[in-house]
Every structure is written in C-alpha cells, then in structure tokens.
C-alpha cells in the first residue's frame, strides 16, 4: 500500500500563488463595490438629498441643517451647479471641521438663467430651475421664385 495516494505534498508555484492573490483581490473588489453602491443608494433615498426632474422643472432638495446659512455656497458655471458647505467649530476640547460638496450637471433643457434657491427654517435647501420652453414645430410655406420677383416689381 502506497502512502502517496493519501499524502500529496503541495506544489507551490508562482503562477498558482498569483492566481490565488488575484482571486482574493477580485472578491474584495466585488464586495467593496457592492457596499459602495448600496450606501450611495441608501444616501439618495434617505431624504438628505433628492433630485426631481419633471417636464416643468428641475429641483434639488438637500438637508443642510448642520450648517449655518453663511457657511453655504452655491455656484453656477455654465450648466455645472456646485453646492458647498464648510463649518469649523472650536471649543475647550479642541477643534473640528465638517464640510460637503455636491457637483451636479444640469440637464440641457433647464433654463440656467432662472435657477433660484430657498433655505427653510429647518435647514432644507431647495434649488429649482424651470425648463426651457420647447419650440413647437411649424409649417413653412414654400414660395416660388416667380412670385417673389412679381412682388419686387410692384
């Protein structure tokens, strides 16, 4: 009876070790991306940040109750809307700082000249912009060249 059948020494090869490492990294990456996506969706659905895009308007609602109004900035460059908050707190125990930044590309059909914002008493920031009026199609009459020349002679 041979012991070789029951005892097979493990053969270590560089290729097998690399493949094992790649598999581990791939597994970790999948787990991280799934968690990141889930956290982002939870954040969007939490009520802290909400975007509404209808036929009439584009609206953004954001809970900024942790920030003083003077520490909030809204900037619009072209169609890029930037919302920022930055607050520093000093007390006898030390110093803390909190900040956020959201950058949103407005849809092409938004009237960027009419973007307006409102901050409620309970710290809800609402930014709204109406949609541009859609130019309706129309029929264009075809005039003949002879009719134009006759009008010019008269």
From TrEMBL:
One of its GO terms (cellular component) is nucleus. Residues 39-145 form the SHSP domain. GO terms for biological process: IRE1-mediated unfolded protein response; protein refolding; response to heat. GO terms for molecular function: unfolded protein binding. Belongs to the small heat shock protein (HSP20) family. This is SHSP domain-containing protein. It comes from Caenorhabditis remanei. The lineage of its organism: Eukaryota, Metazoa, Ecdysozoa, Nematoda, Chromadorea.
